Amino acid sequence: MNESELGISSGRSWTTRRDKKARQLAKVEKLVKGRIIPADRIVEVLENLIVTGDCVALEGNNQKQASFLSKALNNVDPDKVNDLHMIMSSVSRPEHLDIFEKGIARKLDFSYSGAQSLRMAQMIEDGVVKVGSIHTYLELYGRLFIDLTPNIALVAADKADAEGNLYTGPNTEETPTIVEATAFRDGIVIVQVNELVDELPRVDIPGSWVDFIVVADRPYQLEALFTRDPRLISEMHILMAMMTIRGIYERHNVTSLNHGVGFNTAAIELILPTYGESLGLKGKICKNWALNPHPTLIPAIESGWVESVHCFGGEVGMEKYVAARPDVFFTGRDGSLRSNRAMSQVAGQYAVDLFIGSTFQIDADGNSSTVTSGRLAGFGGAPNMGADPHGRRHATDAWLNMITGESQIARGQKLVVQMVETYQNGHAPVFVESLDAIKVGHDAKLPVAPVMIYGDDVTHVVTEEGIAYLYKARSLEERRMALAAVAGVTPIGQQCSVEMTEQLRQDGIVALPEDLHVKRTDAKRSLLAAKSIDDLVKWSDGLYEPPAKFRNW
Amino acid sequence: MSVAYLFPGQGSQKPGMLHDLPKHPIITEKFEEASVVLGEDVLALDTSEALSSTRAVQLSLLIHEVAAASLLMSEGATADIVAGHSIGAFAAAVVSGSLRFSDAVAVVELRGRLMQEAYPSGFGMGVIIGLDESRVTLLTDGINTQNTPVFIANLNAQDQITIAGTISAIEQVFTLARSAGAHKTKLLDISVPSHCRLLRSVSDEITRKMKSFILKDSNTLYIGNCRARVLRKAEEIREDLSEGVANPVRWHEATTLMFERGARLFVELGPGDTLTNLAKKAFPDTRCISAVSSGFDSARLLINREREMSNNR
């Protein structure tokens, strides 16, 4: 074969992406001042930098939003820029979907859309939004480096310097991931910053990864999402928290973990220093966490339970507290928190022993979903962490504890725990014959139903009735019965007879509170190390500064 | 996006509801305009005797709602998005700039009259609290037959659904609903089985009437009743108003859509506070007021303040 047969000198260009970027940059030369885009020219600059059909990553996760840039994108002329393919981990702000109504964007790959879930369902049904896929966070981040590499990244940072170095501080979240994927394959990185400074507290993202900076007219949107007011924790939550500590954390030696954001997991955090202490468990469980800076973890940290916490993002009001506890949190030389959503998701999936969270619906096989009829909310952080990573190799007590067979090559399993009251808000049964997610998936023509956590990954279910040790079940039928045994008087619960429950208790597959030496009458609010937000502030020595909406004293 | 106007439907009426509006030239002008269309003095419609007729109730609501909104808007306290519940949809369409007020008066007069005459006895509506749409649908589907028609009529909240049909069918659904876990079931003081296919013939007549009007594309976002979508085109709004009476009101979705589109202040324009309370419960982090009970001055202040705050989001 000669060279032309091999195609070696076919003359194809290997720099089409680079060339395109150079062309786009040239178009805005006169509109920008070096790296700086004047705020009042942002729309014009976007119209020149973005090409119809481009793949655009717009930063929005559930806490931090590139709100100045999303508004600007919503103001571009749809005749000049249209048919964009958007990548957003969280669809949160109204303009995130307005751009689809205007035709500026057409296709969407995303993870979470809780704050726009009705509109999302409607717009998919009406054909206004064409969904690529609904992803878990890690899948979406992963695909940025595979087949969804952005042409344009629109992200947010706290501060920038003249060289384009960025400080993202406690709210670093997913910014470095998006920027890396874009910058290293000749995409254009545009960053909105709250301020331009001479010297940054530290560099979170180097300037050579950044093309443009724009100083926004107001700081990026930031929501406090992981603050749970202890006043709203009920004795039911406390009962379930006691059972979980005894029946799961103590029993399996759970040292590393992730918690969801429900009041029941907040109850666990708040009774570690009281109930956990009384059981002599300090130093034995709950030492290493993949967790946002939950204010309700403060008492456990202060009483010496917690060795380390790696965070997905920040939490409004926790900045000073976190900065004052560098042994526990990951902080920079400037002292402030460094979060990283992608890294913490990896840690939460592969490196922790246990995930525990609550949900709206669980079916007979333990599949769960937070989907409400007619809404399409996608997924949050739960499905990555609420999945057993089959590729895991490193062994811990808890992981090995899940081995039930005799095989020479048996492997351990992550503990995936669902913690729910059998009825939601007193009337809607959590245990159901069929998940609403199936109909929602069908209506939106999704290839698979949007299940949050698959039943075959769930090892334990905790309710006010007791704990089902699903991993111990010897058959699918026994597994279903174990789940039914703790499902109360829901339709699913009624499938398990009293005798059957007795047998499952004897076999150690179901435990009621008394089997765990937990007295229902002991589940009192007096067990909470902090009973209010004010108490949390006191525990923190005044370092925790709750946002106004939580200051109720 | 920040301010939503909500226009209530039947059930909100109160004796004196037209007389109680502020004495203001804008309000008087609306009363006069309506009186001319009807060939009668509208101020005679809101006595308690007159309000025993569906026609007077629907006309009084429309006139009250449009007059109240016009007053607020004349002072610059405008809405970014509007929706009306059932008959309230006509006021919303007027306020959104799509339907002319005089046409609204004429078609509501027809609507009220036809509904009044449609089902003289044995029919009505009832409310079920504590079950969601899919569960109530299972129950109505189980009871609904040619002789015992019963359908979902209004989806007011996720767990507050009204049904319409024959009284006996409604009561059969109630029995099932209570055993399925509903906290409360109650017959409403309405003798017309509205918002279901039993009113198809009424809807056909309204459709005919609506065809004779010239509607415009809306200038404020308008959310329809039938599918809880934003409707911009004149033809879409015409269809929604024409079909409304024979289709369920997807109110919870309509207000959820407002919230997701950024509404953070809900202002009810009507004599009661039913919609205010529904919105408060559904969106606890928002402010919800009834312009009539909180007073037009404070409504105007709150609207202006909300608009400033929304610029900072």
TrEMBL record, chain A:
This is Malonate decarboxylase alpha subunit. It comes from the Bacteria. One of its GO terms (molecular function) is transferase activity. It holds the Pfam family Mal_decarbox_Al. It comes from Fontibacillus panacisegetis.
Automatic annotation (TrEMBL), chain B:
One of its GO terms (cellular component) is cytosol. GO terms for biological process: fatty acid biosynthetic process. It catalyses: holo-[ACP] + malonyl-CoA = malonyl-[ACP] + CoA. Residues 6-296 form the Malonyl-CoA:ACP transacylase (MAT) domain. The active site is at S86, H195. Gene3D superfamilies: Malonyl-CoA ACP transacylase, ACP-binding, Malonyl-Coenzyme A Acyl Carrier Protein, domain 2. Transmembrane segments: none annotated. The keyword NADP does not apply. Its EC number is 2.3.1.39. Belongs to the fabD family. This is Malonyl CoA-acyl carrier protein transacylase.
